[in-house]
Amino acid sequence: MSIMKDSREATMIGRRTDGSTIRRPLSPHLQVYDMLQMSSALSISGRITGVIWSLGVLLMVWWLLAAAAGPEAFTRVQWFLSSWLGLLILFGMTGAAWFHTINGIRHLAWDAGYGFDIPSMYRSGWAALIATGVLTVVTWIVAIIAWA
Amino acid sequence: MANDHAANTMLRSPLGRVRGLGSAKGGTHHWWLQRLTSIALLPLTIWFAFSAALLAGASYEDTVAWIGRPWNAVLLLATIALVFHHIASGIQVIVEDYANQEWTKMSSILAVKAICALLAIASALAVLRIAV
Questions:
Q1: By the CB < 8 Å criterion, does A47 face chain B?
Q2: What is the value of ipTM here, to two decimals?
């Protein structure tokens, strides 16, 4: 057998329950999807917002470490987070976090076997988008009231 | 031509094959922990998001007092542990999906896990330093 060029090949050889080998189909990549479809657009958005939020968690780490380090370090975090750029990043992060959270609930429902049919999937997709918008705005209203 | 069946039969029993945990060598453990951490993070996320919003513009003294309050510190520590576990396992799946070379896959996953572990320890230490 030749040396594998792509390590994913290793996972393409599976076995049926009777033990006989079978070549599994290669999972389709991003470019095969129509990204204007709700299903695929929200699917990849879940992953992208997960990555964005992971980067956003760095702000939480910075915030905690600065609070532990002392007033000077904390002032620097507050300065950055309340700057024009900081607020923009925080706002984007809030949206990404809420979307990832709500889309995650959809995934948990699917894992439990609910809402798989296309009409339900579209309905929950729109609900997720609307809820993301509402929760993002509500979070910022709370923040602005607290700030004022 | 001897026997097609014989060629396809392994010495492993069906139970052994399941315990061998399939092509990913991990069974459903990784998948299951992703769901568990996500469920646990659901209330913690809502709590943290609104707590952080309420702390907008708070002074150093107020913020440190908030972090140091026992329940807040406990929930922060839980959030830190679960968040970094969830991030590491999530990024691992992304790397597994898109990395073509075994060594890039392996080294990226190990790097991500190392970074997540260090950030988690640093964040936990910060909370403990304030709370204790």
A1: yes
A2: 0.83
